[in-house]
Design a protein that fits this description.
CATH superfamily of the largest domain: NADH-ubiquinone/plastoquinone oxidoreductase chain 6, subunit NuoJ
Distance between the termini: 57 Å
CATH architecture of the largest domain: Up-down Bundle
Strand content: under 5%
Order of helices and strands: HHHHHHH
Largest sheet: none
Length: 171
Amino acid sequence: MIPYLFAGFAGLLVVSGLLTILHKNAVTSALFLVLAFCSLAGIYLMLGAEFLGMVQVIVYAGAIMVLFLFVIMYLNLQHDIETGVQLALRRGVGWLAGGVLAAEALMLFARRWIPGPSTVASASAGAGNTQTIGLALYSHYLFPFEITSMILLVAMVGVIVAGKARRGERS
């Protein structure tokens, strides 16, 4: 029964992920993303990571998606008129960023910096799931955790500035 549930959740995750990026309406894409988050939470629950499954639903499907929908509604996405220079610049920057990400991934895999079992997980073998995640997150992965929070902060400030610029307001 478990392999069928896993296959069902995995299939739902792949389909809803594809519908998220292929759908033209931003609100519908956000709702498909909520479905993808919930199916990922189901996979976590089946793997015995109950804390991660519940955090996935509460934080991502709840709080982050409310933020996404708020941003979508706040920006009132309309089509801007773009010239050939703007389109070429956007594509060039996109390809450059993708190349940098691919180079970083290759460097990480070449140096064997692939995340895996850490010494924190083996040291706290008697600890619960939540305690092990907390120890790993705030000791071994503290720097990536802080970088992620800074990226989210910059994104929120950028959305506010972009929204004000679209309305013609000054900050």
